[in-house]
Design a protein that fits this description.
globular, mainly alpha, Arc Repressor Mutant, subunit A, 2 domains, 8 helices, Tetracycline Repressor, domain 2, 70% helix
Length: 205
């Protein structure tokens, strides 16, 4: 009996999360109300608060769950690669493949970053989800923080920023994406750097 209740609760939770993700992808994270989310999930409005204290909590759980799926894809590619293979192309290809398969998460992550910049949405759990993603990305890439006081390495932040920035601008400007394209984009960045820095400056730290 308890197992049946547990399965029913899990099913309802997944329905709420799935409905929210679909509505956020369609309308953005600002517009859909709790009533819309519960109606889309075909449950009563009061049911929402049995699982989530607020929309902010639901959004944080969606972001955290999305990052878990993304990092599993990244770790899988790196772990299954031949010995001695370069990690960076594998990490970039994993991100491209993941967002090609799960475009709703690309929109969610992009909007959640902007949402956090608003003064009233300094959610500790949401900030923690982004911090954990960058930390784990750095661990897979093999770049650790320089000091114990730093939660994330600067290299990991730069890598996460490159990925998020390119994908966001592609979405905004309507550029199509394809699996593995981020690796090509990173190569383009390497080509641009010497031209921007000028002769004799490209190798400066």
């Amino acid at each position: 009996m308890e197992d049946r209740r547990s399965r029913k609760r899990d099913k309802t939770r997944h329905a709420l999360l799935g409905s929210a993700l679909e509505l956020f992808a369609e309308k953005g994270i600002y517009e859909p109300s709790i009533g819309e989310i519960t109606a889309h999930a075909d449950v009563g409005k009061g049911t929402f608060y049995q699982y989530f204290a607020s929309r902010e909590v639901l959004i944080a759980e969606l972001v955290e769950g999305g990052f878990d799926l993304l990092l599993a894809e990244v770790q899988g590619r790196v772990s299954n690669a031949p010995e001695g293979a370069e990690r960076l192309p594998l990490i970039l290809e994993a991100h491209s493949a993941f967002f090609e398969e799960h475009p709703n998460y690309l929109l969610l992550f992009h909007q959640a970053r902007g949402w956090m910049k608003m003064a009233r949405h300094h959610s500790a759990s949401l900030r923690g989800a982004f911090s954990n993603y960058v930390q784990n990305l750095g661990a897979v890439a093999g770049v650790a923080p320089r000091t114990d006081a730093e939660p994330c390495s600067r290299q990991a932040i730069v890598l996460a920023g490159f990925i998020a920035g390119v994908l966001s601008f592609d979405k905004i400007l309507g550029f199509p994406r394809g699996s593995g394209r981020l690796s090509h984009d990173f190569a383009l960045l390497a080509e641009v750097a010497p031209r921007c820095l000028g002769p004799g400056r490209s190798d400066r730290p």
